[in-house]
Amino acid sequence: MIIQSSGRIVDEIDQARAQEYALLATLLANSPRSQLLSRLADLRGDTSPIGLAHTALANSAQRTSEEGASREYFTLFGGLGDGALLPYASHYLSETFYGRPLARLRETLQQLAIERTPGRTEPEDHVAFLCEIMAGLAGGGISADEGTERSFFMRHMSPWIRRFFVDLERSKFVDFYASVGTLGRTFIEIEAHAFELPA
Hints:
This protein is mainly α. The protein is built from ten helices and two strands. The longest helix is centred in the last third of the chain and has 21 residues.
C-alpha cells in the first residue's frame, strides 16, 4: 500500500518506520496506560532482529501493570537515583543541559518550521521529541526536501541515541523499559545501516 501525504508518496516500509518511531516516542514521553500495554502484549514478532525485539516487548508488557510501568518510568526519568537516565542529546554529547547539541537542533527545527507544542516543558533534544520528529519525516506528516530525513538522523540522532538505548536496555532497575531499550537499539541499528547505504 502506498499513500500520498504532504505531497509525498509514502510506501509501506516508511509507514512501518514511522510507526516504530511513534511507538518509541510515546513510550519515552510518558509511561504507558493499561490500554497501550494490552495492545503491546498482543504484538507478534518473527525471527528477524526487530521481530525478536517486538516479541520481547510483548512478553514484558504481559508481565507489567500500568502502575509497574509508571514506577519504572519514574525510576528512570523522574528520579535522581542510581538508575536514572538523562534522555537528552546535550547530556550524551556534551555532558550538559541546553548545550550546543540543543542549539544546533533548534537551528534545524527552525529551518523545518517545526515548533515545540505550547506547554511542553522538556527541551527539544529529548529522545521522545526526536523520535516524534523522525516519525513525521518518515511518514510524511512533516513536509521536507528529499534527504532531510537522512541528514536529520545523521546529525541529531546517530551520534548518541544508540548509547541511550543501550543504557536503557542494560538498566538493572527495570523490566518493561529494558525491553523498550532493546527495541530502540535494534531499530536504530537498522536505521543507521540503511542511512549509510548509497541513495
